[in-house]
Please model this.
Amino acid sequence: MTTLSSTAVPTIPRLEHVGRVTQARVALSEWTKLRSLRSTRWSLLVAVVLTIGLPLLFATVLSSRWGQIGPLERADHYRHRLDISLAGVNVSQLAIAVLGVLLITGEYSTGMIRATLTAAPRRLPVLWGKAMVYMLTVFALMLPSVLIAFAGSQAILRSHHILQLSFTHPGVVRAVVGSAVYLVLVGIFALGIGAIVRSTAGGIATFAAIFFVIPPLLNILPSSWNNAISPYLPDAAGRDMFSLNLPLPGDVHAASNDLSPGWGFALFVGYCALALAIAAVLLVRRDA
Amino acid sequence: MIEARGLTKDYGSTRAVDDLTFEVRPGIVTGFLGPNGAGKSTTMRLMVGLDAPTAGDVTVNGKRYRDFRAPLHEVGAVLEARSVHGGRSAYNHLLSLAQTHGIPKRRVGELIDLVGLHAVANKRAGQFSLGMGQRLGIAAALLGDPSTLLLDEPVNGLDPEGIQWIRNLLKSLAAEGRTIFVSSHLMSEMALTADHLIVIGRGRLIADASVEDVVRKASGDVVRVRTPDATRLRELVTGPSVSVTSPEPEVLEVSGLTSDQLGDLAFEHRIVLYELTPLQASLEEAFMELTRGEVEFEAVAQPPAEVAA
Model:
């Protein structure tokens, strides 16, 4: 350890100009906080690697196994051939969600929140700042990631002349970009939950319950109930943004329970707004 | 200038701060004293708006903390519990706080040097010793060049050098005309640092006075007299309003008479005095006297356990 200086006290230099706290300044501060933690960099790196790596892996495996696959299974892969390119999104959403929760609960567990809220006592700019910075960061990283994942996995499939899908095929751009937007919204939803729950374990558990536990549980319900509820859950609504069904010639058009991509997006945005709104009210009302 | 008016805070059914009214003036160090659990930390949290009062209010320079547009310029706070993310470097921690007010990066560097953290500025704060953590807290509090400083138990766990450093710092900041409000549960520490004392116990105000007044009030005018004629003097002074004890032979401790009165009396009766001393309670004793019965967790003598046969 370094020896600290002697007990002599130098005079504190005066500060000539002090600015007011503004939303832009708080957002800049939140950006500094985000980029200066190792855990942030690791989570985001994991998300990028999974988003790009899994589709490449799946495309490679599928290409090498194609000869041993029966026609029915081939048809099924054909109908969902975009899912190969976006397979990483399903896994990287967990990293994005955990980081979203940590962004705020990490402040409570370390006590940093006291410094944060004494610097910005109106509090709401902190929540908006975190949300803005995290949205931009996730989008800036995930949009290139899904584009690379699409291009890379398609290159592998094309070289084997299977399951090819052009970027200009109807719905593909919407689904690929939609998957990046989906990850952004997952991050915001998780941030809202973290701000409501204020504990890392509780926040992650709540997110996991809403996204991974409740949806399969609903299968126990009578299917008329299940069909009336399931499509409107956050996870299902969000998924509609990047799912793309590509029917084979001759497929009978089956009635789908899913929402349209636009409605799914709108509903998921609504859930995020609700989570943030509850978080905002609690942030202002509760003692820190 | 800090003003608390009827400041009250309940946590559930527990009243942590109970109707506190006091002022903290600029230019001096004001000690905020009380046993552990007396409500000092809560009062400070109320001052910086982390908690909202149940009743009453507290203002700094006439404004509630939440109404400040540039709060770091008005109040710097070093709260007892650490307020730093351990995964972030000291530099980035301070930078993130400075950026909320548009305070330049240069200022962050200046303060890191000033508190002596230059060599560890890029180390993660989680690896800091208690003393380094305290210095980081002080750097954060001074970022905005505030006119008021709140420090909650700043010397807790520090080595003598660190304690000396903080003492000197507080005195020099007060000398610049700033308002310095520093809490402690250690009277001896306050005796060396503070000019004025606000003493609380169980959330209530017990004393609001200068250090000398607190001591004088607790001293109770006891005069110590040493004389070979102790028995005769004792008979002479005994009266309804005077009490005398004799801690050792030839020594009397008299309360109810001043040292002047005792001296005159001895002179009239030709009693030789070897010593005549007005006794002052130490600040520590004064504190114990003031907070008697106000300690939240007083040690209770346990009945001896029955010995199993």
